Amino acid sequence: MRHSIQVGSSDSPSFSHRSIRHHQSPHPPPHHFDHPAQTVAERRRRMASAKMYAYISLGIRLFVLLLVIIALILVFTAPGVCFWREINGSQQSREICPPQGTLFPMNIDRWNSALHLQMRGQNIWGQLAVVILSVLFALPPLIFSCIFMTSGRSLGFSQIIASGVGVIAFLVFGAFETWYATGFDHMPTFIRQIGAGTFSGCVGLPGCEVGFVVKGWAVAAAFYFLCALLFVIDAVVVFMRRDLTTQRRVILQHSQPVRGSY
Questions:
Q1: Is 217 exposed, middle or buried (0-12, 13-18, 19+ CB in 10 A)?
Q2: In which domain of life is the source organism classified (predicted)?
Q3: Could you report the per-residue pLDDT of 173-219, keeping only the tens digit for each?
Q4: Phi, psi angle pair for 113, to nearest 5°
């Protein structure tokens, strides 16, 4: 009696099909990645761009420090002391600029002894705080640049914060220095009152005032405002470099091989 055995009926899957289903990986296929050579080239390009931005930022910060030092010298030497007569806000006399140190000297070695810098004139010592603080606010960004150049640590967020604080600080310094450069609410009144107005020529002239400026201090104020603008540019450069650094990290993560489970 022959018994026939039917193999591979339609009701039960074949052994090969069961084996394939058993060994199918539950993980999805790995994503497509760029060629390693392309990834390395892209990484090098971004590293070169980040270094370029770092050098640009370093140059900006060195220039800021240079401007601060020049402003300090201008404040201490106070060149270009000038005054003139105004009537109703309109200049009515030529600008008088005595030789340096002869009439109304404003350099630092006269801040204690000069007659025109007594009483309310003692407010001039506030400039010492301006020049000291300006140096202190110019140094931290340079320290961040040195850290990046020596150790490679970016500290991008901290650098952006430092640049933002520098913008506000130098705007304040520029405003104060402008106030000092125009007589700090003291020198025009002092000159007008000399000889009851005979020195300035305001005797009997209604609406007569005295204009006053220290041109060296005005230049220092302009330098402080320029430093604020440079710190804005520096913050943009740091942000762009930080973005490149973030993209480089993403490329490094994607370039790692993905191992599937089999």
A1: buried
A2: Eukaryota
A3: 999 999 999 999 999 989 888 887 778 778 878 888 899 999 999 99
A4: -105, -25
